[in-house]
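Researcher: If only I could read backbone structure tokens as easily as an amino acid sequence. Walk me, if you will, through where the backbone shape changes along the chain. I have put the entry right below:
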Amino acid sequence: MYCGATVHANNRLLTTVSVAGSSRWARIGRALWDDHLNTILIYGVSLVAVLGCWQLAADRFHLFVLFPPPSTTFARLAGLILDGRLEVAAAVSLLRILAGFIAGSVIGILLGLLLGTSRTARALLEPYVHFLRFVPPLAWFAPVLLWVGTGELAKVLLIVYTTVFVVALNTMAGVIAIPRNKIRMARTFGGGPLQIFFLVMLPASVPYIFTGMRIAMGNSFMTVVAAEMLAANEGLGYLVNSGVLFLDTSTVFSGVIALGTLGFVIDRIFQSLIARFGGRFAPR
């Protein structure tokens, strides 16, 4: 009789805990869903406000050739999507950006780790890093064309250039910002130079590296558009430039919208990857 009562009590306790747990997760799910709906609502209201201001400005100036209204712009955007021109241009630009961004990020991370861990390397190389980071990529456009021609390599090299120094400086800042007590503790427990580097310095620098890469991605978009406007036969920059040449401002606006949308989506994806894979390295 006693055993039966005990089992019944345990089952009732487990049921209570299960219900409490499920209700807790239900509350968390509802809260996340409410936040998601609030975000969508805010985005929707802001988009309507921007489109309204755009329409009012276009009606006010009555220069649709120079400043097309949203209806004309989105009609042109739909036409570019239907005939495939926009998709091809976006794909070409994105491939160029990814090629230069990945190569530049790898070089920048290695350079930043070197500058952060070696005072000698920092004393020798940091002045040149700061010198070059103030020279815009377009200043190298003509020399790069003379050295490697007008092909894909020239555009990728310019994106590599605009990526390297941002990532390198952020990586260096991450290494320098590591508390010395962490390194001393690792040495106290018998950690060698390689162990300290891979188990202490590199993980602690990851948030800084991701921040530098995110900033560099925006710079890569600006660089590829300028390079495609000056010397390219396809890409979003070329699409915008062709609209300027033929006074087709609706095409120019369509290209700008495509660039902004593509950059926004890439940035959101990058944020999600940082949250998923970089959260363990975030400072606590």
